[in-house]
Specification:
Blueprint: E1 2-5, H1 20-28, E2 32-36, H2 47-52, E3 56-58, E4 66-71, H3 75-80, E5 86-90, H4 97-105, E6 109-112, H5 127-146, E7 154-156, E8 159-161, E9 165-169, H6 173-184, E10 188-192, H7 199-204, E11 208-209, H8 230-246, E12 249-252, E13 278-281, E14 298-301, E15 304-307, H9 317-335, E16 336-337, E17 340-341, H10 348-353, E18 354-357, E19 360-361, H11 364-375
Bound molecules: nicotinamide-adenine-dinucleotide (NAD).
Nicotinamide-adenine-dinucleotide is lined by residues 118-120, 122-123, 126, 128-129, 132, 169-175, 192-195, 218, 223-225, 228, 236, 253-257, 262, 264.
Length: 377
């Protein structure tokens, strides 16, 4: 099979979908690997490393049987995909179902990395998790770089320095990595999540879990969170208002799949925080957990630095690409044998990940959204 790896063209996207390590595996398995010139350069994977791995450097990697990307192809790039070819990328079909329809119309069989079902068996393919790990880590480093204080406690000739205090809101994949990173840097960390099951994981990382009786659990289907009732939300905001005042760093990662991020740090909480405090809002792209976050920007409001930088994985492109590429390799191992792709729709992971096939949108949740949009005119 001819596998194409284009250069990412989205603004500020520095990742590459396949790194030489994976390229070599695919080439050894008898595939022809075509890598667009310079595709990995921003992530520190130079063309010669791909050539040594058995790949061929080309000027256009879209004319392949299988095209593998990080970001979804632009309209111009979709037009370059061959009818009958396959595509793997973050297609975000639940956010933009019409895009999926375009791929179906183009006759492309598309698999989306953000649709991998969250099953134990699918963990090695879970690109949302691998990239959230990077984001959680980098969020803490960004906070450390802005904070006018040390993270660790220091005993120096100039006296003792108290450790920084960090609050992590949302203890999913990114939040847990943020907790671990802040602890490694020596901060005193506390965390909150509406799913009480994560309390033990938070404690195992050496952080305190904020206890509060919300009157309900935020645990929804499939291990994800669900939206809280108004009353529970009010109680949570009250708890976080107090915690935000007592911490130097607030890292927010709270998300509800398919919804706007809940506002947990309201505009009037920010002036009450200590001057010099830093908020890193990992939910900036989906509306922000802090009311004063500006997506894609670092702003200072009432003496508090609010970091709304988006696409943090792209700022650490070497490892985010390596992890993404390994996720892809695990997915390919499910359906690519002897250079032939066979999608077994009886396999839960494949069924959940395939968005379009045979000119149709076959992904159930995406198809439903399209139907609803069609019915609404
Ligand atoms: P996510 O990015 O959807 O959300 C981040 C966190 O925010 C979650 O922990 C959520 O509970 C929390 N949250 C939502 N609303 C909140 C609020 N109002 N206040 C505080 N916190 C709030 O989540 P994620 O990191 O993708 O992980 C979700 C779950 O999926 C976790 O249980 C994780 O262990 C599980 N998971 C399973 C697999 C697998 O089995 N393959 C892979 C990855 C994650």
């Amino acid at each position: 099979m001819r596998i194409g790896v284009p250069r990412e063209t989205a603004p500020a996207e520095r990742r590459v979908a396949i790194v030489p390590e994976t390229g070599a595996k695919l080439a050894r398995a008898g595939n022809e690997v075509l890598v667009e010139r310079g595709a990995g350069t921003e992530a520190s994977f130079v063309d010669s490393a791909y050539e040594q791995a058995g790949a061929r450097i080309v000027d256009d990697a879209f004319h392949a049987d299988l095209v593998i990307k990080v970001q979804k192809p632009t309209a111009d790039e979709v037009a370059k995909l061959r009818r009958g070819s396959m595509l793997i990328a973050f297609l975000q079909s639940l956010i933009d179902p019409r895009y999926a329809q375009t791929l179906a119309d183009r006759g492309v069989t598309a698999l989306s990395m953000d649709a991998i079902p969250r099953l134990t068996r699918a963990q090695p393919m879970d690109a949302l998790s691998s990239q959230a790990t990077v984001a959680g880590y980098k969020a803490v480093l960004l906070a450390a770089a802005q904070l006018p204080r040390f993270f660790p406690m220091l005993t120096t000739a100039a006296g003792t320095i108290a450790p920084a205090k960090a609050l992590v809101i949302g203890a999913g994949v990114a939040g847990l990595q943020a907790i671990a990173t802040a602890r490694r840097l020596g901060a005193v960390v506390e965390a909150f999540d509406t799913r009480p099951v994560v309390a033990e994981q938070v404690r195992s990382l050496g952080a305190r879990f904020l206890e509060i009786d919300l009157g309900e659990s935020g645990a929804g289907a499939g291990g994800y969170a669900k939206e809280l009732s108004e009353e529970a939300h009010r109680k949570e905001v009250e708890l976080l208002a107090k915690a935000a005042r007592e911490n130097d760093i607030v890292i927010t990662t709270a998300a509800i799949p398919g919804r706007k991020a809940p506002v947990l740090i309201t505009a009037d909480m920010v002036p009450a925080m200590r001057p010099g405090s830093v908020i890193v809002d990992l939910a900036a792209e989906t509306g922000g957990n802090c009311e004063l976050t500006e997506a894609g920007k670092v702003v200072v409001k009432h003496g508090v630095t609010i970091i709304g930088t988006t696409n943090l994985p792209s700022t650490m492109p070497y490892h985010s690409s390596q992890m993404y590429s390994r996720n892809i390799a695990s997915l390919l191992a499910l359906f690519l044998k002897d250079g032939k792709a066979t999608l077994d729709m009886g396999d839960e992971v494949i069924k959940g990940t395939v968005i379009t096939q045979d000119g149709k949108v076959v992904h159930e949740a995406t198809a439903k959204l399209l139907q609803a949009a069609g019915a609404a005119g």
